[in-house]
Amino acid sequence: MADEVSLLDYWPSMFGMRTKMALAEKGVAYEYVETDPWVKTPLLIEMNPIHKKIPVLIHKGKPICESLIQLEYIDEVWSGTYPMLPSDPYQKAQARFWADFIDKKFYDPSWKVWGTKGEDQVAAKKELLEHFKTLETELGDKTYYGGEVFGFVDIALMGYYSWFKAMEKFGEFSIETEFPKLNEWTKRCLKRESVVKAIADSDKIIEYAYALRKKFGAE
Amino acid sequence: MADEVSLLDYWPSMFGMRTKMALAEKGVAYEYVETDPWVKTPLLIEMNPIHKKIPVLIHKGKPICESLIQLEYIDEVWSGTYPMLPSDPYQKAQARFWADFIDKKFYDPSWKVWGTKGEDQVAAKKELLEHFKTLETELGDKTYYGGEVFGFVDIALMGYYSWFKAMEKFGEFSIETEFPKLNEWTKRCLKRESVVKAIADSDKIIEYAYALRKKFGAE
Predict the structure, then answer these.
(1) Residues in A 100-139 with any Cβ partner in B closer than 8 A
(2) Would you write out chain A's pLDDT as a tens digit for each of its 219 residues?
(3) What number of H helices and E strands is found in chain A?
(4) Which one of A75, A103, A207, B98 counts the least CB within 10 Å of its CB?
């Protein structure tokens, strides 16, 4: 197994995309194990018995679950190259705060905007736009969320990038028009090989979103 | 301001109790600012404009929000005394996983079991008991969640201790009977001065829970 690292992941997962970016930034080779989370494979259940969710990072046979925890782990184990988190405790706390914000606040409306219909979708859109606005304001005129260096929060949010087009399509809004700074930030992030290699094709994600809409009874 | 640290907190908050335990374990003196989160005070809005929630830890004038992020910050800034998180990256990831589990899974049914009624309460109780079972199993025969040392996960879960009696009362179950290992663990934790000083009186919490039940329309 390459560098004794493997990743149980599913191609559309915004969480898996984060971990793939982090591993690429650190130059860590790994075995990729495509794992549909709707099918609870024995390996998935063995490696993540509590949540039974991907991504699961396996290092030397031991599983690390939850993408942000994986990012912290990767940053600590492969600490010699490219730090993802700032060393200053306050800056680090701020990075953790924004990544946590993305998972606590952004995630829910980000899927409901394409995965629901009617009033639920209207409410999700309103909430999602507020969160995009918050993230646009926090970015401000900085190059990346942490300043000059592509880091923890950039990876946390760029994990969602492949889903942006689906959010825009079903939510009927334009990131380019409404959140120009965030839009320019995505372009900067997309210049990184780690990002380009990790992300899924936005059109394929839209097809997948259509399939999930049917599954969720929203179509 | 004592050691340039202050804490905006509200006495019944399980999250604030965590931070108080951590500060006490580290021997950090601080100014306590009682802040009812139902009243959005100008200071709370200034210090936590995104979530407008307590606890907010303020160090040298700068706010750190979200209790688990505060614990990490406290562990890093006052690193000379009593490490809360293990130094080994894998053990650290495991500690983060369980603290995250408590917030992601345990929190929701833990308040719904006393804050709702009817079917919602029945569902919350079922879920809560499953999570208690998971936490009992994870503890197993260890002294503390991390092994021999009272640490990050112990603090994360003991934050809820003052609410256990309310959960038992409204949920009609007994931690002592159903989760004996966890019950013994609480007794061990309660021998620590940091814990005793941080926690609220369980009977006052029950009174507060009654007031909230009325507010939520569950009474």
Answers:
(1) 100-101, 134
(2) 445 999 999 999 999 999 999 999 999 999 999 999 889 899 999 999 999 999 999 999 999 999 999 999 999 999 988 899 999 999 999 999 999 999 999 999 999 999 999 999 999 999 999 999 999 999 999 999 999 999 999 999 999 999 999 999 999 999 999 999 999 999 999 999 999 999 999 999 999 999 999 999 998
(3) 12, 4
(4) A207
CATH number of the domain at A170, please: 1.20.1050.10
- Domain extent, residue B35, equals 2-77
Three-state DSSP class for residue A48: coil
CB B67 within 8 A of CB B19: yes
The radius of gyration of chain A's CA atoms, rounded to the nearest angstrom, is 17
Q: Please spell the DSSP secondary structure of A7-42, one letter per residue.
A: EEE-TT-HHHHHHHHHHHHHT---EEEE--TTS--H
| Token code pair at residue A85 | 């988190």
A110 lies in the same domain as A29: no
Question: Quick one: CA torsion of B38, B13, B167, B124, rounded to 10 degrees?
Answer: 60
Statement to judge: residues A137 and A102 lie in one domain: yes
A40/A37 Cα distance (integer angstroms): 6
DSSP element (H, E) containing A61: none
Candidates B65, B102, B133, B138: best to mutate against A (most CBs of A within 10 A) is B65
- The reply to whether B114 falls in a domain is yes
Pairing label, strands A56-59, A5-9: antiparallel
Nearest CA in chain B to A64: B93
ipTM: 0.96
Structure tokens at B58: 């303020």
Number of domains in chain B: 2
Across the interface, do A69 and B100 touch by the CB < 8 Å criterion?
yes
CA distances from A31 to A193, B83, B120, B138, B213 (A): 18, 34, 43, 29, 51
Count Cα atoms within 13 angstroms, Cβ side, for B190: 12
Q: What span, in angstroms and rounded, lies between the C-alpha atoms of B34 and B31?
A: 10
Q: Do residue A126 and residue A54 come from a single domain?
A: no
Q: Are residues B13 and B114 in the same domain?
A: no
- Does the CB of B152 have a partner CB in chain A at under 8 Å? no
Q: What is the CATH number of the domain that holds B9?
A: 3.40.30.10
- Check whether residue A122 and residue A181 sit in a common domain: yes
